[in-house]
């Protein structure tokens, strides 16, 4: 059911104060004209100026299933590539599987739709993400290799892509070793499946043996591997082994210490893998595409779990002011998500939220009347009243791939739509916010995703 939240957002308990704050906010925001990625970049120049000094640009999203968020991020990536020379695009997707996407955007090899489908993320198998991939390929066509944009995933949730890469690598680098570890490679391969703990479905003992055996081999025979393949392929193979290890660490954390521990392992792994990608590609800047809960500078606030340090918090610690976290918010409109529980049997469908909470950031942005608005928190300047308001914890929209409705599996206070409005001190968590008034669902590439 879709709710018209436009009028609700202007009816706060203190209308005069909301109107006063909205007037102040209008003086600080930049209104964007469109989400169309092919449009002129003129309206994006203030956004580009805010991002110009950042080595890592974290591009968030308030849901994993909103078309306008994807289109706006596409626009920003295009402007960063064309106008600021950015040459590394990183994504919240399993690192080994995205080698197929990199092969396409850099060399024109393979099928981009199939490569997106191979990431195991329904969230990215959409026409909006495919449009960005196709544009990256178009931009790279005919350019010197060193000037082409590279595409790297940074996630570590599955073993299957890493196992496939290692198997193919060892077939060339050391066929005898491949035969020796063949059974453990097969048992380590989770085939893109998860356990009932929502973690990689691999064989623990075989995976531990594989890690021990190949870690020793890379330490002792790295030069031989490089001679048989190349330095770049050997580095990627070693990173794939590290992804297997990260995936294993996440499962152990989940089984022994709970979901928060698993979240911590995952976000630490993504930060490590992004730093590796910068070094591996020789790029000095990266645009990072991920969820708001990951890119924020503070904590990953997941529905029904305690907060844990986010990917962005690790990046902020490593890069300081060279990291820019851009969050997203929206007033109303439908989006795609999996209903109720994250299992293969869950329903991927279209959902919407009720009116935003009172005194939320969402309501204040809506009161400005803006359709698309960008706020850089540094741009609030000397407006002490506005800065004081934002210094308090405020709610904004935030949900990932899962929608928890009031008809959830239990009737606790945590059920319902409050789970999808995360409370943060926004200037601590993000450097800027992009607001979209009305959203539409992302569009899947297959009929089953529509």
What would you say this structure looks like, in words?
The chain is α/β, with parallel strands linked by helices and 450 residues long. It has 2 domains: 6-86 and 285-449, EreA-like (biosynthetic domain) (EreA/ChaN-like  fold, 3-Layer(aba) Sandwich); 160-262, no CATH class. It has 17 helices and 15 strands. It has helices spanning 6-10, 15-26, 45-51, 67-84, 99-107, 112-117, 127-140, 160-173, 175-188, 204-228, 231-257, 259-281, 292-295, 311-319, 361-367, 384-390, 426-429, and strands spanning 30-31, 56-59, 88-94, 150-155, 286-289, 299-300, 308-309, 323-332, 335-339, 347-351, 372-376, 394-397, 402-403, 421-424, 432-438. The strands form 4 sheets. An 8-stranded mixed beta sheet has the order 1-11-15-8-2-5-3-4. A 3-stranded mixed beta sheet has the order 10-9-13, with no helix packed on it. A two-stranded antiparallel sheet has the order 6-7. β9 (335-339) and β10 form a beta hairpin. α11 (231-257) packs antiparallel against α12 (259-281). The longest helix has 27 residues, at 231-257. The protein starts with 5 loop residues before the first helix and ends in a 12-residue tail after the last strand.
Task: Please state the average pLDDT score.
Answer: 91
Strand order of the largest sheet: 1-11-15-8-2-5-3-4
Into which percent range does the helicity of residues fall?
40-55%
Q: SS-based structural class?
A: alpha/beta
């Amino acid at each position: 059911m879709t709710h018209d939240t436009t009028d609700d957002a202007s009816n706060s308990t203190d209308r005069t104060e909301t109107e006063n704050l909205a007037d102040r906010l209008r003086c600080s925001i930049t209104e964007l004209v469109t989400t169309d990625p092919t449009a002129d970049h003129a309206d994006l120049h203030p956004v580009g100026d805010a991002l110009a000094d950042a080595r890592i640009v974290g591009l968030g999203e308030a849901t994993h299933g909103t078309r306008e968020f994807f289109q706006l991020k596409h626009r920003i990536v295009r402007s960063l590539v064309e106008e600021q020379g950015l040459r590394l695009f990183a994504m919240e997707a399993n690192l080994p599987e995205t080698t197929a996407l990199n092969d396409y955007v850099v060399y024109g090899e393979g099928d981009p739709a199939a490569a997106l489908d191979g990431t195991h993320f329904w969230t990215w198998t959409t026409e909006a993400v495919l449009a960005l991939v196709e544009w990256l390929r178009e931009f790279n066509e005919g350019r010197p290799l060193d000037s082409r944009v590279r595409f790297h995933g940074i996630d570590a949730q599955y073993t299957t892509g890493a196992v496939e890469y290692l198997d193919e690598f060892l077939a060339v680098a050391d066929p005898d070793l491949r035969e020796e570890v063949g059974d453990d490679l097969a048992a380590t391969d989770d085939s893109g499946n998860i356990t009932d703990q929502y973690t990689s479905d691999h064989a623990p003992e075989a995976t531990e043996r594989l890690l021990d055996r190949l870690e020793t081999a890379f330490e002792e025979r790295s030069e031989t591997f490089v001679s048989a393949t190349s330095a770049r392929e050997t580095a990627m193979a070693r990173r794939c082994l590290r992804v297997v290890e990260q995936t294993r660490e996440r499962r152990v954390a989940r089984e022994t210490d709970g979901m928060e521990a698993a979240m911590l392992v995952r976000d630490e792994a993504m930060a490590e893998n992004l730093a590796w990608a910068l070094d591996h590609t020789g790029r000095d800047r990266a645009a990072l595409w991920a969820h708001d809960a990951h890119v924020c500078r503070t904590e990953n606030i997941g529905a029904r779990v305690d907060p844990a340090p986010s990917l962005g918090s690790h990046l902020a610690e490593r890069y300081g002011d060279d990291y820019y976290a851009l969050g997203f918010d929206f007033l109303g409109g439908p989006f795609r998500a999996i209903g109720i529980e994250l299992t293969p049997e869950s329903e991927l469908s279209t959902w919407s939220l009720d009116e935003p909470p009172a005194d939320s950031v969402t309501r204040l942005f809506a009161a400005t009347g803006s359709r698309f608005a960008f706020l850089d928190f540094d741009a609030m300047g000397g407006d002490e009243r506005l800065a004081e308001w934002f210094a308090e914890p405020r709610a904004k929209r935030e949900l990932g791939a899962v929608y928890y409705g009031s008809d959830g599996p239990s009737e606790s206070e945590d059920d319902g739509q409050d789970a999808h409005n995360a409370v943060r001190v926004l200037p601590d968590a993000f450097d800027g916010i992009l607001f979209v008034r009305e959203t539409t669902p992302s569009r899947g590439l297959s009929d089953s995703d529509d």
